[in-house]
Amino acid sequence: LYFYASVEEGIFFGDVIPDDKQSRVLMQETRSSSTQQETKNTDASDLPPQDQYTPQNTKSSIQPPPSKRLTGEDVMYIFLDTTLSNTGYNVKGMLADRMLEITGKNGVVTSTVMKEFSGTASYEFQWTDTTLSADALSDGNTRVEILLDASTLGDLSQLNYIIHATDWKGRGDYSSMAPSNEASVYVPNQFTRGPLQPHPVVGFVVGATGTGMNGIDVSVEWVNAGITYARNTVSGVNGLGQPGWYQVDLFPSNYSSGDPLWANATLGGVPIGSNFTLIQSGDNILPDDDFEYMNITYDGPYIVVEKYTTDASVQPGDIFTYTIWFNNTGNGTATDVWLNDTLPYGVDYVSDTSLTVPGLTEISFLSWHISNVGPLENYSFTITVQVWANHTSEYLLTNTIGGNFTTPLGVTFPITEATETTPLYLANITVEKTVDMAVASPGDTLTYTIYFNNAGNGTAAYVYIEDVFPFDYLENVAYSTPPDGTIGPNTVFWEFFDMVPGDYTINITADINMTVLTGTIVENVVILNYTNAANYSLAPSQDNATTLISMANISVEKSPGHQIARPGDLVTFTIYYNNTGGYVASHVYINDTLPVGLSYDSDTAPEIPTVVGNNISWHLTDVSLGEHNFTLTVLVNSSLADGVILTNNIELEFYYPNG
C-alpha cells in the first residue's frame, strides 16, 4: 500500500528553520494491489501551480500528539483506522488503532515506525512499537512517499486515514479523513518517480484552458504497434475561462521498457487532431522519463445571456418590459442556440420583439432557436408582461432565462441562467379609532381620532372610510381634518384616491345629548375598504371606540349638634353633600338660611362662604364621587324666649361639566 503526501512549506527540512506559515497537508492518495504489476501508482506528491490550486485548510479540534523537540527534526504521523471499531485514539472524530510515525531532518527520513494504540481512553496518546513492515522516503523538500505491507492492514476497503504533519517547532496541520480508495486530483510542476515504485509508469497531465470547456470529457488511448494498452478518461473538464488541470495515469500490464508509445486523444468524443501535442508517433517513453505535458486550447463558442428591467418595482396591474441579451463571447461559431424564458408566477405575457432578431424563431411559447451565431455576435429583444390584478401580498417576481448551445464539433453546452428579480409592492391599510373620554356625562364633547396608515410599499387606488355614529346619543358632529368628509343621516364617510404609503388621520368631534341616561354605552364604529393599484379589493378592516355615560347624583343632609339650646350657646350643625352618582359634579351650590334667633359664627367647608344676613352660601367645584361633609357653627341669640323652636333650612344645586 503506497501513500503519497505533499506538504506546503516543506517537511523534514533539517536545520533550515521553517517559514512562519503553518505546514499544511495538501493532498494524499493511496493505491492497493494484489500483484506488483497491477498496482495503480499515482504520485500525488507534486505541488500544483499556486494560481491553479487552493490548498485545504483543515483544522482539528482534537489535541494534537506531542511533537518532536529536537532542533530541525520534523515528524509526520499517519493515523490508520483499520477496524472501524469504537476504540482507538480520537483524531478529528476518527478512532485510530495504528499510527505510522515518520521522523526526519536534513531532508532525510531517519525513522519509520509502525505503532499500535495502547491507551485506555481515546484522548490518551499512548502507542506501542510493532515489527510491522513500513518504509518512507523524502525528496528533501515537500514530498513524502510511504510503503506499507497491505497484508497486515486487513480489509483495505475498510481503511480510513488522517495525516498530521508537524515541524520541529511544534506547528502543523491535519489532512481531512479519507478512505483508502480515494485519490486526489493534482498537478505536478515536474514529475520524478519515487524509488519505492517497482513498476513502469507512463502518463500525462491535461491542462484545459479557454472558454466553452464545461462538461467536456478528455479521453486518451495509448497505442503500441496497433495494440491498445489502456484508455483513460477525465470527465467533466471545467474550463470556463479558468485553467483546469487533470492527471491521467497509464499502467499497461504488458508494457516492455523501451517500446514506442503514442496516444490518440478525443475531446468530447471528437478527435482532437493536430492541436493535441503530447507524444509523437515513435517517441520512446522509458519508465524513468518525466511526464509529458499538453495544453488543450478550446477554440469554440460560449453563449452568455443577460436579462434586466428598468422597473425598480411593480404593482398589481402594471405593464413592464424585460430586455434579453444573448452574446457569443467565444471565438467560434455556435451552430445552434436555444433560449428558454420562464416567466414568474403572477404575471401574464403581453408581447415580445423576438421577430426583430434575424434568424430567431419561436419553437414554442417563450422558447426560441437561432442558428450560426458567430464570434462576438450579440442580439437583444424584449418581453412585455402585465402583473396580475388580484395580488394580495408583496413578494418578489423572479424571471429566469437559460438554454443550450452546440459547437461545430457537435458538443452541447448549457447556457448559464440569467435571473432578474423585481419586487411586487402593495398597499397595506388597517383602520383604528380612539376617543379621548372613556367616561363622560350628557353635554360633554367627545373627540374621535381615526388612523388609517398605509404601511405597505404600494399605492391604494381607492380608500373608503365610513364612520357610523349613534346619532340618538350624539349631536353637533363636526370634523376637523380632512375637509372632504360627507355627513349623512347616520354616518360620516370619506373617499380617497391613489393613497401612497404614509400615516393618515381624521379628527371628529360630537356632543353627548342631554337626554342620554347614565349607564349608557356610546359606541362609535368605523369601517375601511380599499383596493390595490389595479382596483382589486383587499381585506377590509373596522374598529370601534366606546364611552360610558355617567352623571353625578348629590343630595344634602343637615344634622344639629344640639336638640336643646340656651340663649348664648354655640350650636354646631353637620352638612352632608355626598356624590352617589357615577360622575364628577363640576359645580355644587349649597345655601343655608338661618332662622331668626341664630347668627353665623364659623364653618369648616373647603370654600369660604358668602354671608348675607342670615343667608349663608357655598360654591364648591369638582365634587368627586363619595361622601363629603363640613360643619356650620351658629350663635343662639340671648334675647330668645323660652320654648322657641328654631327651624334651619338648607338647599343644594349641582351642575354637570357642560353647565
Write up this protein.
The chain has 659 residues and is mostly beta strands. It folds into five domains: 2-179, no CATH class; 202-297, Sandwich (Immunoglobulin-like), CATH 2.60.40; 303-424, ntegrin, alpha v. Chain A, domain 4 (Immunoglobulin-like), CATH 2.60.40; 429-549, Immunoglobulin-like (Sandwich); 554-655, Sandwich (Immunoglobulin-like). The chain is 0% helix and 51% strand. It contains no helices and 47 strands. The strands form eleven sheets. Strands 3, 6, 7, 8, 11, 12 and 13 form a seven-stranded antiparallel sheet that branches. A six-stranded mixed sheet has the order 31-39-38-33-36-35, with no helix packed on it.
Number of beta-strand segments: 47
The domain count comes to: 5
Kindly name the structural category: mainly beta
Mean pLDDT over all positions? 74
What would the principal axes of the Cα set say about the shape? Answer: elongated
Total DSSP helices:
0
Distance between the termini: 109 Å
**Helicity level, as a percent range?**
under 10%
Share in β-strands: over 45%
Characterize the main sheet. 7 strands, antiparallel
Q: Catalogue the unreliable spans.
A: 15-70, 180-218, 222-227, 234-298
Q: Please compute the radius of gyration using only Cα atoms.
A: 50 Å
Keywords:
six-stranded mixed beta sheet; Immunoglobulin-like; 47 strands; seven-stranded antiparallel beta sheet; 5 domains; mainly beta; elongated; 659 residues
